[in-house]
Amino acid sequence: PCGLGARDSLRLEAGFPLYGHELSEEISPLEARISFTVDFEKKDFIGRDALKKQKEEGLSHYRIGLEMKDVGVPREGYSLIHDDEEIGEVTSGGYSPVLKKGIAMGYSRYKLSEGEEIMIEIRDEEKRAEIVSWPFHKE
Q1: 3-class SS at 84?
Q2: What percent of the chain has pLDDT over 90?
Q3: How would DSSP label each residue in 101-131?
Q4: Right CATH number for 1-139 from 3.40.50.880, 3.90.1150.10, 3.30.1360.120, 3.40.50.1820?
Q5: 130, 116 in Cβ contact below 8 A?
Q6: 5, 14, 56, 108 - which has most CB atoms within 10 Å?
Q7: Chain mean pLDDT for the chain
């Protein structure tokens, strides 16, 4: 790929969230797994109390990385399924030229562990994917 396609492939392989996909005004830095951007030692900032409460009470959804085990290319909006229950959706996905397989990021309503397997509904067919950490490309 070249141009925006190359940029998006590289962004996805690096696990970088994109505003409008993995980041928005409704998604907190804790849910997006970018809490390193928040200085909880700072005495006052807009949203501090809400983030502190969320940190104490737990998250309503979690950003996850996914690597396809079956042949298929995950795309934005595709359903994530675990134990026959829809648990979230893909926010960014595509084919990784480096890994030679489909990869994705998405949000799950449940905290899932690395190595755990879930399904992604791709064109009305459930395909296996594994929860992985970022960056997808480790070298």
Answers
A1: coil
A2: 89
A3: EEEEEEEESS---TT-EEEEEETTEEEEEEE
A4: 3.30.1360.120
A5: yes
A6: 108
A7: 95
